Amino acid sequence: MVVACIAALAVASVVIVVLQPASSSLTVTNEGRPAQFDSKATNVAYWVPLSAPLEELDATGSDATNCGEELSVWLTEYGTLLPSPQALLLRSKSTEPLPVSFSADGAFSEPRDGLLVQCGAPQLQTGEAEPGELDWTPLLLRLEEDAEGALRALTPTADGPEAADITANAASPVGLIGLIQGDLAFEGTIRAHADGAPVPVPFEGARSDDMTISWPGMPSRGTLRVAVGLTNSGKAAFFCQVASSTSRGGECLAQEDDETRTIRGQAENLRADYLTVRDSVAEAFRQPRPTPDTGSRTEFVRVDPWNDAALEARGVEEQFVGWCNQSAFRADRVTCETGADCFLNHDASKAACGDPATDTWTIYGFTAPVQPAFDDGTEPTVYPVALRLVSGAWCTFSSSGPEVEVVGWGGSAGSCVEDDGTAYAFWSTYPSGPLGQPYLFKPGMNDYLRIAARDGTPENPDYEDVAEIYY
Questions:
Q1: pTM over 0.70
Q2: 340: phi then psi, degrees, rounded to nearest 5
Q3: What is the rounded distance in angstroms from the CA atom of residue 412 to the CA atom of residue 238?
Q4: Where is the signal peptide (predicted)?
Q5: Is position 234 within any domain?
Q6: Which residue of 38, 140, 145, 398 has the fewest C-beta atoms within 10 A of its own C-beta?
Q7: 314/442 same-domain check
Q8: In the beta sheet, which residues pair with residue 163?
Q9: Is 455 left (phi over 0), alpha (psi -120 to 50) or beta?
Q10: 354 strand-pairing partners
Q11: Which domain holds residue 317?
Q12: Taking the CA of residue 406 as centre, how many other CA atoms within 13 Å lie in the half-sphere pointing to its CB?
């Protein structure tokens, strides 16, 4: 993970200055970044393409903060030192506070095939700020093709990233620790805006004439992070984990009899799963899979919380720390650790989990990849999230079983609640009924699919007509 601390900043001696255009009072300078010390890459990260000879990776001489000399040479030859984090100092000639915003001007493309190799934790060395010293604030510069200005400037908080609120004036320079993020590859310039012409942000490694940077594209849940470290026995080793996770991960090898366990195999599989989920979710929004014919008056209703623009605008409120599994029938539906019904947004970056009956949702983010649905070549089964009865009752599913079992049924499938609050269980049986569901029964005299509810028995069922199946 990339680390940035808020404190007085001690950085390398290099300072990159971009003179502001005559029509702007804003100046942005680069005050330094992590670098190599004593021929060892220390607290930095490299982007390494999958075309590199990963089988040659060797952790010998490395420890928790440094890559060994040979590994550092290999990374310099085959990898690209990532342009973050870096210390950016903003100054303004204005006597009044000026709001500062950021944008990206360039071309986006698909993320390049590769992985992240960390030599320690990429960070800038900091100490406690003394009175009168400048505090340095982390700034996430998230490259997004669809965002206003193709970039979102965010400040990390305990409740998740929030829109950055930055002002500068002559009396108060602003210190920022710039961290670039973005799922897509980007070739272009990041600019700061204040009262006049935009000013290029001078990331080290950028082209000197126009400050163009090259970002490889790093989907956090689709990129393998390889960190150097020491095993319990003190041996230098590599540890692999998805880039969005804060844990070190498990030990991994450059070469292994089982190719899927190698660094290359893990990187390829992680990226392939990410792209499969991303692209199938996008297709699910463009062209939803047709629902099967119910053979009755019962209708399907597609649950789509992301149709609400206000929901899309909300930030992440909770985080899934475990894995989520994609539905085979609806690519944008996932089953996660909460057990709630969850639906992915258009780019599969977050999920809305909640109750379609009350239209209340909680927005979850992911630290682990979403596992793609298993394709066994058969037509997938639609699994409803709720039922609406002709009586108006709302029925939801539960696998916990009823408090009181009814002899002859296979168990409780869930419970229904009438408008007046009256609640009762509905039952499952075997073999499964219509649509492959054990709780649905063939249409009755009103031509609706039915459920068996209340205290009915298999010999004398108490049927209720199902008006709508929510999925």
A1: yes
A2: -75, 160
A3: 49
A4: 1-24
A5: no
A6: 38
A7: no
A8: 154
A9: alpha
A10: 341, 361
A11: 304-371
A12: 22
CB-CB neighbours of 457 under 10 Å: 13
| Nearest CA-CA partner of 42 in 117, 122, 127, 126 | 122
Last residue of a domain, one of 215, 242, 263: 215
* Torsion sign over Cα 106, 108, 112, 117: positive
95's tokens? 């006597």
Encoded tokens for 34: 């992590």
Q: pLDDT tens digit string along 7-26?
A: 333 333 334 444 444 456 89
Residue 33: partners with Cβ closer than 8 Å, 6 or more residues away: 11, 12, 14, 83, 84, 85, 86, 87, 124, 204
Tokens coding 348: 């599969």
How many Å apart are CA 52 and CA 59, to the nearest integer?
16
Helix (H) or strand (E) holding 140: strand 136-143
Both tokens of 237, joined, read: 């080793």
Residue 263, classed as helix, strand or coil, is helix
Total number of domains constituting the chain:
3
Judgement on whether residues 76 and 202 belong to the same structural domain of the protein? yes
Q: Are residues 353 and 431 located together in one domain of the fold?
A: no
Question: Three-state secondary structure along 65-109?
Answer: CECCHHHHHHHHHHCEECCCCEEEEEEECCCCCEEEEEEEEEEEE
Distance of CA 123 to the CA centre of its chain: 22
- How does pLDDT run across 386-441, given as a tens digit for each residue? 999 999 999 999 865 445 566 677 788 999 999 999 999 999 887 789 999 999 99
Residue 427 burial (CB count, 10 A): 26
Q: Could you give the C-alpha distances from 4 to 86, 165, 220, 223, 244, in angstroms and in order?
A: 9, 18, 17, 20, 15
